[in-house]
Amino acid sequence: MTKRYTVARPSADQALPEVSVPTSLKGRLAQGHPWVYRNQVNGGERLRSGTWVRLRCGNLSAVGLWDAHSPIALRVFSRNTVPDADWISARVTEAWDLRATIREDETNAYRWLYGEGDGLPGLVVDRYGDYAIIQTYAASVAKLVPLVVPALRRCDPTLRGIVQKTPEPDSEGRPTAPEEETAAGPRSQPPAAQLQQRWGELPPEDLVIQEHGLFFRANLYVGQKTGLFLDQRANRHTVEQWATGRRVLNCFAYTGGFSLYALRGGATEVVSCDSAHAAAVDAANNMQLNGFNPEDYPFLVDDCFKLLDRFRQQGRRFEMVILDPPSFARAKSSRYAAGRAYTRLNALALRCIAPGGLLVSSSCTSQVSPEMFREALAEAAQQSRRRLQILHEAGQPADHPVPAGFPEGRYLKFVIARVLPLI
């Protein structure tokens, strides 16, 4: 049965404060881009974060949340009206319905709300088992949390708890954003964070979730993201299908997700590496949880760049090398340095792959476009004197939807390529 959603009707101006932006932005705003940067705004200098404002761009009008500190001064929510409880509830329900297949067939850990992708810019909700974890990426968006909590509860009465993960404030008391200019939910955040109980129970520290029949411990109180890299779920599953009979090196392994899928796929050898000792401990626990003996599969605590260079010098080769590094570009000004870092990393990896082997490479920053990432891979192949055949390209799974007019939301690049000698 088709669900009916509450539709916000056009309202009067409600005497909202007004800001104007150049008419040159009209095209992208009309296409649904939800961000307006501070240097593009005329007005609003004395407004407080969290104030609803009326945006004017020629004859285009929209309603957004003002932020007094973020480089993104205005996040656009609606073309018609100020969002209320019913409007928020409709967005939550739309997002819930979109993830029905994921819940039923894939996992009980997924992104329930993906900020801009689900019409709620700057706000993310991750689902881990029976718990919902809220994160906001701007001080202004925090005002929506009291409306989101009851909407989550109405949508899924089986929830046992709702918490908010809040990064420590900076020296001026402002919440620290995970990444300066990326879409909601980039794959990096400050390590210091705390859980604030919003409703129901606090999640246990030793929470176990299921993903495609594998099990992972998710400590929501520490670590990156809200416990796991949910955006690589489908890509981990893809690696399983390519790992059969291969010797695998998994770099930036975190808690061993790609390693476990490779093992279940029939890899003959799996070596993992991450610079964090805690990741090695968590990966060993996940191995045991899925019936693998961690002593049989080394986890090296090391700098992955240095490890690859050392393996190159030793002549050690693998049939699959997986690269899932953290973001190399936290701001637009860093994109070219990030491109060079991706080139260097992939060139090192290519020298450690046997002829006919596979390079599995990712980039998780919106500052590097898919074209720029492919260019970095091509340059890496040139530097390492290899041929590179791209066999598979992907990005984020369906619980990270991207508005057509918001290319920044498509931050994840994932490539599987065959490595061959020059001819």
* Widest sheet, order of strands: 15-14-13-16-17-19-18
**Mean of residue pLDDT?**
90
Anisotropy-based shape: globular
Proportion of residues in extended strands:
25-35%
By CATH reckoning, the class of the largest domain would read Alpha Beta
CATH architecture of the largest domain: 3-Layer(aba) Sandwich
Concise overview:
The protein is an alpha/beta fold and 423 residues long. The protein is 26% helix and 28% strand.
Give an account of the 3D structure:
By secondary structure, the chain is of the alpha/beta class. It folds into three domains: 18-78, PUA domain (Archaeosine Trna-guanine Transglycosylase, Chain: A, domain 4, Roll), CATH 2.30.130.10; 85-207, RNA methyltransferase domain (HRMD) like (Transcription Regulator spoIIAA); 229-421, Rossmann fold (3-Layer(aba) Sandwich). It is built from ten helices and 19 strands. A seven-stranded mixed beta sheet has the order 15-14-13-16-17-19-18, with helices on both faces. A five-stranded mixed beta sheet has the order 1-3-4-5-2. A five-stranded mixed beta sheet has the order 6-7-8-9-10, covered by helices on one side. β8, α4 (145-155) and β9 (161-167) form a beta-alpha-beta unit.
How would you summarize the topology of this molecule?
Elements lengths: L17 E3 L5 H5 L4 E3 L14 E6 L2 E7 L5 E7 L6 H14 L1 H6 L3 E6 L8 E6 L2 E6 L8 H11 L5 E7 L25 E8 L6 E5 L2 E5 L14 H10 L4 E5 L5 H8 L4 E6 L2 H13 L9 E3 L2 H11 L3 E6 L11 H16 L2 E11 L6 H14 L2 E9 L18 E9 L2
Parallel strand pairs: 1-3, 8-9, 13-14, 13-16, 14-15, 16-17
Antiparallel strand pairs: 2-5, 3-4, 4-5, 6-7, 7-8, 9-10, 11-12, 17-19, 18-19
